């Protein structure tokens, strides 16, 4: 009789351990779906180069790349756009 009781306890422990094991595997696989390309890409207003928004320089609401020519032209005078 005690052998049957021992067997039932053993099976129950095995069941709990397997349940925890599969829950652990599922929790490890789930969050790997996060996108790396979360940054917005904007085009430079002068040369058209596409740069991430956090690296772009914003002048008068327009995005510019980090190229010195794109900055220098817009620093001295205001750009005359046909907007
Ligand atoms: Zn540029």
Describe the structure.
The chain is an alpha+beta fold and 83 residues long. It has a domain at 41-76. Helices cover 45% and strands 14% of the residues. The protein contains two helices and four strands; from the N terminus they run H-E-E-E-E-H. The strands form two sheets. Strands 1-2 form a two-stranded antiparallel sheet. The structure holds zinc ion (ZN). Zinc ion binds next to loops. Residues 44, 46-47, 49, 64-65, 67, 70 line the site of zinc ion (ZN).
Secondary-structure topology with pairs:
Elements: H1 2-29, E1 41-43, E2 50-52, E3 57-59, E4 62-64, H2 68-76
Antiparallel strand pairs: 1-2, 3-4
Q: How many distinct beta strands?
A: 4
User: Roughly how many Å apart are the termini?
Assistant: 91 Å
Number of helices: 2
Q: Hey, roughly how much beta strand do the residues contain? A: 5-15%
Strand order of the largest sheet: 1-2
H/E topology pattern: HEEEEH
Fraction of residues in H or I helices: 40-55%
What structural category characterises the helix and strand content? alpha+beta
**What would the average pLDDT be, to the nearest integer?**
80
Largest sheet: number of strands, sense, barrel closure: 2 strands, antiparallel
Radius of gyration: 30 Å
Shape field? rod-shaped
| Ligands bound, unique | zinc ion
Unreliable spans: 77-83
